Amino acid sequence: VNPWKNLVVQNFGGTSLATPERIKQVASRVVEEKRAGKDIIVVVSAMGDTTDRLFKLAKVVSSNPPKRELDMLLTAGERISMSLLSMAISEMGYEAISFTGSQSGIVTDTAHTRAKIVDVRAFRVKDELTKGKIVIVAGFQGVSPTKEVTTLGRGGSDTTCVALAAAFDAGRCEIFTDVGGVYTADPRLVPNARKLGAISYDEMLELAFCGAGVLHWRSVDIARRFGVDIHVRSSFSKECGTVVTAKEKIERTDIRGITQDLNVVRIAVADPSDPVAVTNRILTTLERFDIPAKLVVASRLEKKSTVSIVIPKDQIEEITARLAEEPDLNKVSLDDDVATISIVGNGLCARPGVARTVLESLARSGIKPLAISTSGISMTVLARRQNIVAAIRNLHSDLGLDATRNGTQ
Ligand code: ASP
Ligand code: MG
Predict the structure, then answer these.
(1) Does the global pTM surpass 0.70?
(2) How far is the CA of 264 from the centre of ligand 1 (A)?
(3) Which stretches of the chain drop beneath a pLDDT of 50?
């Protein structure tokens, strides 16, 4: 028997905790679960845009802040929200205690600013739950084996939440966001986007990796490996949200969603004599710094060679510095006027008509793809940024994803 079937692990994002009033609302919501007899771990993000502000602060005093110190700084954001939430809960007459990532036993590797969780030793969390307390855990942070404070990468509090749910084999894992679920497109950009009732791990992983901000892709990866159902819900209402789960067994070949990534740059090499060798060199450099390549295009066809490698923009400084150190990579340039649009759905590969619809729709919106790549469950188009939001809205409609008046599914 699982002793923690009664345990609920919840994560509240920055928007849900942006003001003292919202923190009090979250406290009431947590207390309501407690009254219903649940054990609760609440994983918190930093209030509002605190993490962005701390990051900017670092940039004021340093052009290239040491990563260890950056982690020290950024983890302060979650410490503020965890203690305030704990106080707000105490104020309502319930016992709560807040813990840092380190105190919660979130053990990571040593890669500052993008550490991976290697173990969860949640002894203190367990003890306090056993005493009946509501435990508040700072998301997005951990401790390395050498006792250094680390962070899991932007958006990482989702990952803390799922890792704790997996470690306890909790009865329920819930992620509360401002949008209230997983949609067929970002509802802030596409007003006609529909909320999905359920989505498979594979599709969610692909959406998250291709830029959907609603969940950190690593949280989905952990959920898939440990079989944790993630309930994505609204922190501002009681509406039901989306469940990310394996239990979507019927064979479907419909499109689940469109996502975009505006936070990318393209590493380009003009007419290399050996495009594959150059690609290899660049990928080796990226690998050494654990920087994921989101799209790789290398070809030598009809006497023309090209190399395009798309990476996250937030690592651009690191990449520029690394590539500059490589003497024979001096023909490399960085192009930041790009974005990717991805279409995700199981069985997409079996429907060539989808690609045609996508290309025709983009053409009508004036988008000329720079590169296209497909996988079994997705199709990604690299394009110039201009007009991209309008293009996504049109595409959403052309693919038949727009909400109709009769319902969400
Ligand atoms: N506060 C961190 C961030 O803004 C972690 C999170 O919110 O998930 O990236
Ligand atoms: Mg988040």
Answers:
(1) yes
(2) 19
(3) 407-409
